[in-house]
Amino acid sequence: MGLSTRAPAYVTIVTPFLSHFIFFSQNQSLNYKLIGGQAHKIISSVKPHKTISSVKPLSSDAYVTSWPSLIKLLMTNERWNMKSPCVSQDTPQFSSFLDYPVNYPNYPQPHQNQSPFFFFPIKPHVLHLSPPIKSRHQSPPMTLMTPPPIDPEEEEMLVPHSELGAEGPQPMEVAPAESVSVVDAPVVDDPPSARFTWTIENFSRLTGKKLYSDVFFVGGYKWRVLIFPKGNNVDHLSMYLDVADASTLPYGWSRYAQFSLAVVNQIHSKLTMRKDTQHQFNARESDWGFTSFMPLSELYEPTRGYLLNDTCIVEADVAVRKVVDYWSHDSKKETGYVGLKNQGATCYMNSLLQTLYHIPYFRKAVYHMPTTENDMPSGSIPLALQSLFYKLQYSDTSVATKELTKSFGWDTYDSFLQHDVQELNRVLCEKLEDKMKGTVVEGTIQQLFEGHHMNYIECINVDYKSTRKESFYDLQLDVKGCRDVYASFDKYVEVERLEGDNKYHAEQYGLQDAKKGVLFTDFPPVLQLQLKRFEYDFMRDTMVKINDRYEFPLQLDLDRENGKYLSPQADRTVRNLYTLHSVLVHSGGVHGGHYYAYIRPTLSDQWLKFDDERVTKEDMKRAMDEQYGGEEELPQANPGFNNSPFKFTKYSNAYMLVYIRESDKEKIICNVDEKDVAEHLRIRLKKEQEEKEQKRKEKAEAHLYTIIKVARDENLHEQIGKNIFFDLVDHDKVRSFRIQKQTSFALFKEEVAKELGIPVQCQRFWLWAKRQNHTYRPNRPLTPLEEAQSVGHLREVSNKANNAELKLFLEVELGQNSQPVPPPAKTKEEILLFFKLYDPLKEELRYVGRLFVKATGKPTEILTKLNELAGFASNEEIELFEEIKFEPNVMCEHVDKKLTFRASQLEDGDIICFQKPLQTGTVKCRYPDVPSFLEYVHNRQVVRFRSLERPKEDEFSLELSKLNNYDDVVERVASHLNLDDPSKIRLTSHNCYSQQPKPQPIKYRGVEHLSDILAHYNQTSDILYYEVLDIPLPELQGLKTLKVAFHHATKDEVVIHTIRLPKQSTVGDVINDLKTKVELSHKDAELRLLEVFYHKIYKIFPLTEKIENINDQYWTLRAEEIPEEEKDLGPQDRLIHVYHFTKDTSQNQQVQNFGEPFFLVIREGETLAEVKIRIQKKLQVPDEEFSKWKFAFLSLGRPTYLQDSDVVSTRFQRRDVYGAWEQYLGLEHSDNTSKRSYAANQNRHTFEKPVRIYN
C-alpha cells in the first residue's frame, strides 16, 4: 500500500459544510502549508499539501459539478481568509490514501488523458443520508475529551492511513499473541449499537507497524479496530474503524456508522481520550478514523495513565444506521404527498411552503386570490403560488419552485443563497397581505396569524399604569436557559422590577418603583413560534447556534395556571388550547445547514417528513422527541462495565413550531378541492400536466424513435437574413419527424410526401456534415443503398455524435409550372452551391437559391443566372465572395471569376455571397461589401442599459459592436440620452454571478473594447449600468467626492452636500468649501467634520487630515458648527458624547442606539438636573414627553441610571479614554421613527443577505 514516487501535488479547498475538492497537477512539486496566513514549507514524506479556507459560507444544498462552477462560487466571494485553521485535530481520515475514491460513484469523473488539471469531490467527513448529488451537512464532529488542550503545532494533516514512507506494497503483519479482545455484547444479539473493548498487553513491545483487533459484530456487520502503535508516519497514535470483511463483500456494498474511538485512562477515567465521527463505509473507504489520535509522548508516559503495566485499553462505540435508497422512494405512493425540488439552496423555503400549504384555510385563500388567464406565473406571486399549491395537491411527482422564485424577482444567484425561514415567512406574508387587499380574501393573513400582547408599566406605590397594545404574527421564544415552551412563555411574561437606579418616571409622580412586563390580549388561531436557536455571543464576538435540549408539547395549554399569560382585557371565553401541527428543523451549524419539516396535515397521529423532494412517514418520536436537541447517548451493550457513555451533540433540532387552536381546527383544517381553484388555472395546469406527461412518455420511448429534421429551400428563405446570417439554417426551426427506428427510409419518404406534398420520386435527401472549421453544410446525397436501409440504421451510420437525431436537406427541383419534378442524376463533376445576396444600401442579406455547377466551369458562366435570381438585369456586374467560416473569426474571401470552381476549392455545400459593386460617387455605406457586413454581424452586440440607481430595470437597449472602443460606447449612450458631453457618462460592468453591478465603475478609457467591458471571467454579459455625472469623468477621477450631512445650528434641518476636491486636499479644504454652500448662524462660525456610525460619533477629523482615504460609503460624514461653549473649556470641564437609546425587549434588554448623537460640555460639579435643562433646550423636547426620559451613564453597552442629584462629571473622569464613543450619557426614550409592521429579525445568521421579494 505504498505511494508512487511520482505522486502528483494536490490542493485541498475546504469550504464550510461543502464537499472538499482536490485538484491534481502533474506540474506541481512544491510543498506548502498555510498557517496563519503565511506559507511555510513542510518537510515530510507526505504528498505536497496546500490548504486554503474560504470564509464565505456556502449553502448546504450548493453542489459544484465542474471546474467553472467551482470558480464561479469562489469568484463570488468578496475575499479569501487565510487565517482560519482548515483541518482540525479531530478531523477523521482514511487510513489508506490508496483507498481514496478516485472513481467515486455519482460524481464527475476525471478521464485518462485530462491535463493539466482534473478534479473530483471528496466525500466530506460528515453524514450523507441523502443522494450524493446533494450534500446534507452536519456540524463538524466534536471531540469528547477532558485532557488539556493539544498544542496547535500538532494540528492534524488531512492524511489517510497509507504507510506514507513506503515505496511499495506492504504485507499484512500478524498481530502478536499478547493482545486480548473482549466484545461487550453477544454476537447473536446483532445489536444496532455496541461497545467493543480491546485490551492490548505488552503494548510497548509491539513490533508490527500496524495491529488489528479481533472481529466484532454490530448491526449484523463485521468490524475491527486498526491501530498504528508507533503512528502512521506521524508522532501520534493512529487509530481507525475498519470493515473486517471488506475484501469479500459484493460489489457496490456500503454501510453507515456513527462511532467513537477511545484510549482509556486507567488512572482517571475522566481523562479518557475519546473522538467521535460518522462515515459511509464502502469498497474504497473501508476504514475511517484519526491519523493523529493522540501524541505518542502522552500515550507512552506512564504517569499519564494511558499505559498501565504496559497494557493499553482501546474502546470502540459503534452505532450502525440504516441507509435508505433515496431514488427508489415514491413519495406519492408511500404517503399520498409530494415534495418540492431544491433549486440550489432553497430547502429553507421548501420547508416553509410545505407548512403553509398544509394549512388548508391558507391554501383556500391563496386559491381565491384574483388572477386571470393572461397572467404569467413568473410575473405574478398569487398565480405562481396558486400554481405551486395546485401541483402539490394533484401532481404525482415533486414540484419545481422556479416559477415562484421568478415571481419574487429572484435570479439564479438568489436561489443559491440560504436565508432564514422566519424572515422569509414574514416577508412572504407581508407581500401576500398586500396582494390580498381589495379582494374577497382581504384580511386572511391577520385572521390566521395575528395575535396581540400588551406592554405595561405599573407603579407599585402610586396609582399609575401605562399600557401599549402591539400585534404579532409570530413569537420569538428563548431557548437558552429554558427547558421547554412553557418555560419560554414564563420568561416572556416575566415581570421586571424598575427600582433603584432604574426607577420609572411616571407623569405627575416623578421617579417611582414600578413593574414592567408583557401579557397577551389574544392569541391567533395559528400560532407560529420561532425558537431562538441562534444568538450573538459577545464573549466570542460571533453568532452561535444553541443546540441545548428544548422540549415542546403535542398539546399546548396557554390558559394554564388560571391564564397566567393573559392580560385582564383578554377574552377568557376563548379556550387557548393548541395542538402541534408542524415542526421545522434546522440541521447543521451557524454557518449553514439544511432545513426540513415534520407536519401532521390532518392533525392525526401520522407525522410526515418533508425533506425537499422526499416525503416519508415518521412516528411521533422522530418528529418530536428527536428534535428537542441536546446530546444523545447510545445505550451501553454491557452495563456491568464502568464505561463512559457514548454521547454526541445533536445538531438537528426544532427551529420553528406551528400550533393550531383546538377550537378553530375544524375551520383551519377545512376541505379544499378543485372547486376552489379558478377555472382558467385548472385548464392551464391540466394542459401543462398533459404536456409534461407527453414529454415524459416521449422520453421513455426515445430509444425506439429517431428524430429526423428536414431542411428545405423554404427554411433557408425564411431564416437567412432574419434569424441567422452565417451557414444555412437553424435545424431547431425546421420540420421534424418522429419515426420509429425500424421504419424503412422508403416509408419515411412516403410520410414526407403526405406531409409536405412532394412526391416520393421528386425527393432527394442530402446528409449534413460538420466541417473542421465548425461550419455545418450539406455534404452529399443519400445513395440508393442507404435509402434501402431502416431509419435507425441510417442514423447510426451517418451520425457520429450518436444522438437521436438525423439531419437531412431535402432537394426539390421545380419544373416550368413550379411543380416538383424528379431531380436529374448528379455526376461527380457537379457541385451544389448555395447563394446569398447582399444589399449594401439596405444592409440586408438574403438567400436567393442554389445551383449545380461544373467543377471545371467558371463563375462567369453563371453570372446571368445569378442576376436572374437576384432580380437584376442580365448584364449587371456583380462581385462574388465565398463565406468560409465565422468562428472564432469571420473568413469571407473574394472569388476570382476567371478561375474554375475547382481551382477556387469550392465543393458541395459551399456558400457564395454576391452583390452589386458600389460605384464611386454613390451614397457612402457603413458596410460596403459582404466581408465588412459579416464582420459587423459577427461582432454586433445588443446591450441592455440600466440606470445604476435602478439596477434591476432595463431602461433601453443599443446595438453596438464588440469592437467598439470606450469612446464609441459612451458616445452612443450620450446620443441616446440627448447628452452633449459623452465624458459625463460613467459605466459600470455587470457581475454575471451575483446579477448585480460590479463594486467599482469603469475608469475613463480604462478598457479597450466593448467585449472587455462585457466580459466577466469566462462569461459575457449583455448588461451595462450607466450614470450621468455633473462633471466630466476624467475630471472627476482626479477628485475625491464626499457626501457631507450639514446640521444647522439653529434650525431643525439636515442638508446633504456633495463636496468634490482634489485628492490631496485636507479636511480644512472640505470645511472651507462647505462654508460657501451652507447658511451659518453667524459669519465667524467655525465648522468641524465628524464620523458617525450606527448613531455614535467615532471621530472628529483633524483639519490637516488628507481626504483621499476618507470613506463615506459605510458611515456618515457630518458637519456642524462648533458651539461657543466648547471653545473655552475649563481645566475641569468635560466634552462628553450624548446618545439616544432604547432597550430591545426581544433581545434580553440589549441597548439599541438611534437618532442623532451629539457632544455636550459638562461643568465641574454640575448635577444631572442642571444638565437635563440644557439638553431639553438643545433638543426642544416638550415637557410632557421629556418627563418620560431616563438618563444613564453607559460604558460598553451597560447602563447605570442617574438621579437628578448625581454629579455628572464624576462619571467622566478622563478625557483620553480610548474608544470614547463607548462611554456616553444615554438618553433612554422610545424611538418614534417608523418601523416595519413586524419586529426586525434579530435571529438571522450574520452571513446572510436579507430576504427580498421584488415584485
Automatic annotation (TrEMBL):
Belongs to the peptidase C19 family. GO terms for molecular function: cysteine-type deubiquitinase activity. Its EC number is 3.4.19.12. It catalyses: Thiol-dependent hydrolysis of ester, thioester, amide, peptide and isopeptide bonds formed by the C-terminal Gly of ubiquitin (a 76-residue protein attached to proteins as an intracellular targeting signal). The lineage of its organism: Eukaryota, Viridiplantae, Streptophyta, Embryophyta, Tracheophyta. Residues 671-703 form a coiled coil. Residues 193-318 form the MATH domain. This is ubiquitinyl hydrolase 1. InterPro entries: MATH/TRAF_dom, Papain-like_cys_pep_sf, Peptidase_C19, Peptidase_C19_UCH, TRAF-like, USP, USP7_ICP0-binding_dom, USP_C. Pfam families: MATH_2, UCH, USP7_C2, USP7_ICP0_bdg. SMART domains: MATH. PROSITE patterns: MATH (PS50144), USP_1 (PS00972), USP_2 (PS00973), USP_3 (PS50235). GO terms for biological process: jasmonic acid mediated signaling pathway; maintenance of root meristem identity; protein deubiquitination; proteolysis; regulation of protein stability; regulation of root development. Keywords: Coiled coil, Hydrolase, Protease, Thiol protease, Ubl conjugation pathway. It comes from Tagetes erecta (African marigold). One of its GO terms (cellular component) is nucleus. Residues 338-662 form the USP domain.
